[in-house]
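Why should sequence recovery work at all? Because a backbone constrains its sequence more than one might expect. Tight turns favour small or flexible residues, buried strands favour hydrophobic ones, and helices have their own preferences. The token representation captures these environments compactly. In the example below, the structure is given first.
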């Protein structure tokens, strides 16, 4: 094949390719060009989020700690509507901060292995009515595996959570007694002394149940 015929064949192939691309809607201009905004594909719709609880759940408050200051930090959670609300809320408290709460600077002084054995009476809460007698919270022995300031904070969290669940507008009206494996337990208060009497939020300092 002569050089002239080879060039002619190559040119014919190029033209054929350009025609095929044009038929498919592909631009065949050899130089780059700006794409107008009208040519850009539409952005996908933003994912929608909601903070509304499911219809069968209610808002409750547990009290965690600010990891920098150890100040009480009320946190909103949702729990199924059921008659053992106080037990449900305390069980939720023992679970500690939810995954990802590190970014919110939340922590808990309660040992993560602590189990709730029982609570009596076990009234409806948020807001509820403080019983005439103290609320007795029975916890596993892991709860007293700590001592010093950490134990004060752990007891405070339980007392504050019970108070916010039953009487958020008047926390000191709720009295709390502690048991460990069913045996009455002395607990420390804010000044470091241990007491065998029921304690209230007033024994640990000011409390706002507002999240």
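From this structural description, the recovered sequence reads:
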């Amino acid at each position: 094949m002569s050089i002239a015929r080879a060039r002619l064949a190559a040119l014919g192939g190029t033209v054929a390719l350009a025609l095929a691309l044009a038929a498919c809607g592909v631009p065949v201009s050899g130089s780059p060009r700006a794409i107008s905004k009208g040519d850009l594909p539409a952005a996908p719709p933003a994912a929608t989020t909601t903070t509304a609880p499911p219809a069968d759940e209610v808002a409750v408050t547990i009290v965690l700690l600010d990891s920098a200051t150890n100040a009480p930090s009320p946190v909103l959670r949702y729990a199924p509507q059921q008659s053992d609300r106080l037990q449900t809320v305390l069980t939720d408290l023992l679970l500690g901060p939810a995954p990802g709460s590190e970014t919110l600077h939340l922590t808990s002084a309660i040992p993560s292995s602590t189990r709730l054995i029982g609570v009596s009476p076990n009234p409806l809460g948020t807001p509820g009515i403080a019983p005439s007698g103290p609320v007795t919270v029975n916890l596993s022995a892991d709860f007293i595996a700590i001592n010093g300031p950490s134990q004060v904070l752990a007891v405070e969290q339980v007392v504050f959570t019970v108070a916010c669940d039953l009487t958020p507008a008047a926390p000191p009206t709720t009295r709390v007694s502690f048991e460990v494996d069913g045996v009455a337990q002395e607990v420390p208060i804010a000044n470091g002394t241990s007491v065998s009497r029921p304690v209230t939020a007033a024994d640990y300092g000011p409390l706002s149940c507002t999240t």
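A few observations help interpret the result. Helices lie at 3-23, 85-94, 149-166.
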